[in-house]
Write a structure and sequence with these properties.
mainly alpha; proton-transporting ATP synthase activity, rotational mechanism; ATP_synth_F0_asu; transmembrane; transport
């Protein structure tokens, strides 16, 4: 039983015997999505191809095009995050992308991969990228320090942005649902219909946010690759 608006983010409520169907639904939904790839006319297949084309166009404008592994992984990650974000909007499905540990498990390794690759591939060029060109000599130590800090916080801000935006959307949807049920029993039908329309509209809005947040996550990762030396 949910006790407050934050209970849906607690995985402990999904381990009791009565809530095992929560996990079954969470596991079966992605399987149904990916199994539909075998059907040539499946709507999810056309939707996936649309996502691939959008992400491919964006990644092609950055250095990730010269990093084939990252280039292809970003397109796969975009579909994966979009699927999880959208599935998290459905009732009784655990929203994994609302947790910082989950988003950090993607943001930190991918960012670290770019940093380590730059360090071993061209250490001199990577170190030079920490100092903006044309800066006064007396500012160089401070600029290098600032650039190092800004680079170091990239995985944290990248992961926190996705988790925070998805969590905020789920909290607002929960509050609207609570008020909707209260108006159903206590107030007039006009107020109930108004809140119902608001709930439906906000749910559609959150669906768009789910797509945008997945795109921004992969977009920033592709932009981080611009600092990777090419020679």
């Amino acid at each position: 039983m949910l006790t407050d608006i934050f209970s849906s983010f607690d995985p402990e409520i999904y381990i009791s015997g009565r809530t095992m169907y929560f996990w079954l639904l969470s596991i079966s939904s992605p399987l149904m999505f990916f199994c539909s790839f075998w059907l040539s006319t499946a709507p999810t297949l056309r939707f996936a191809f649309l996502q691939l084309s959008v992400m491919k166009a964006q990644a092609s404008r950055t250095n990730s095009l010269n990093l084939p592994v990252l280039h292809h992984f970003l397109m796969t990650l975009f579909i994966f995050l979009t699927s999880l974000n959208l599935l998290g909007l459905f009732p009784y499905i655990f929203s994994t992308t609302s947790h910082l540990m989950f988003t950090l498990s993607f943001g930190l390794p991918l960012w670290l991969m770019l940093i380590l690759s730059s360090t071993f591939f061209a250490p001199t060029s990577f170190a030079a990228s920490l100092l903006p060109a044309g800066a006064p000599a007396w500012l160089n130590p401070f600029l290098v320090l600032i650039e190092t800090i800004s680079t170091g916080v990239q995985p944290g801000t990248l992961s926190f942005r996705l988790a925070a935006n998805m969590s905020a959307g789920h909290i607002v949807m929960t509050l609207l649902s609570i008020y909707l049920m209260m108006t159903f029993w206590t107030t007039s039908w006009n107020a109930f219909c108004l809140l119902l329309i608001t709930q439906i509209s906000y749910t559609m809005f959150e669906g768009g946010i789910a797509l945008v947040q997945a795109y921004i996550f992969c977009l920033l990762l592709s932009l981080y690759s611009d600092t990777h030396p090419l020679n």
